[in-house]
Amino acid sequence: MALDYALLVLAAPASGHSSLTAVRFARALLARGHSLQRVFFLDNGTLTGLAAAVTPQDEHSPLQQWAQLAEEHQTELILCISSALKRGLLDSTEATRHERPGATVHPAFELGGLGLLVEAAQTADRLVTFG
Amino acid sequence: MLLHTLSRSPAHSALRDCLAVLGPDDALLLLGDGVYAALAGSEAAELLAASGAALFVLDADAALAGVRERLLPGATVVDDDGFVALSERYSRQLAWY
Amino acid sequence: MTAAARKSILVVSRHAHPGSSLPRSALDTALAAAAFDQPVALLFQGEGVLQLLSEQDSRAAGVRNLRKVLDSLPLYEIETLHVDAAAAAAFGLDRDALPAGAEWLDAAGIRALLARHDHVLGF
User: What CATH architecture applies to the domain A4-130?
Assistant: First the structure.
């Protein structure tokens, strides 16, 4: 039976490799015929959306892996806005609002409120957390 | 009937807190540094075996940590597809980290 | 959406708060669920029980007072705080040290709580 999944990522992309595990889990569930509409990044997980992250060439980049997933499967990648702002992750709207030099969030990600996590939980058959 | 996932090493309080609620109907998947809890002969592995929960270890992380050949005999190694299969079978997941 | 179709969330908070941002994220998540009329409950487990100590004064530290957030929960109709009784005992906390009306649960009670929610979020 095909299930609707939602993922919650709390792990920072550069501490350990939990973020990469989460992307692999996302790909594996899609390969098994399930759906994944939204991934919500909260707390230190929001650092995943930092556009300027540079990963050494011999390692997988969590940023690129998530962005590719979103492009291939139309999965929404949402960064919790309050967690993101505290960590310097701003889109152009927030950069203007807070008088910062420019956007720091990768375009594959969007800022959004916790209501989007709640909404995902309402509709999802499975909510899997990666801390 | 819960799928617990533990991603911190046995020295961390995550293991103790997980053990406090882990029941015989549950499954526990060890990932990240959590794979060290399945080292055969270790104190953590004995506690996990005594819990009666079904034990699983994520293959990529066991390989990364170099523990694949040293796992508790009762632990089952699963790949990413197996991880998803566990999440199908157990409708609730609780992450310990 | 009918009441029967709404999925319930249990937020499990197990980190001590001054050293981690997770407790705040856990409370924010519970508040958001309540604001959207989604059934939600909170369990304070392990070191998470320490978040419930009264007399928290955050002025010198210059951060937000977690107790004030906790105290706002009833406004969102989150009435019951579930407490890991074994963890509270291990920290030498008796019922007087923690909010009145908290529900103290042993391991079996915690397992029952986990089993009666649709989604469990560990913070």
Answer: 3-Layer(aba) Sandwich (3.40)
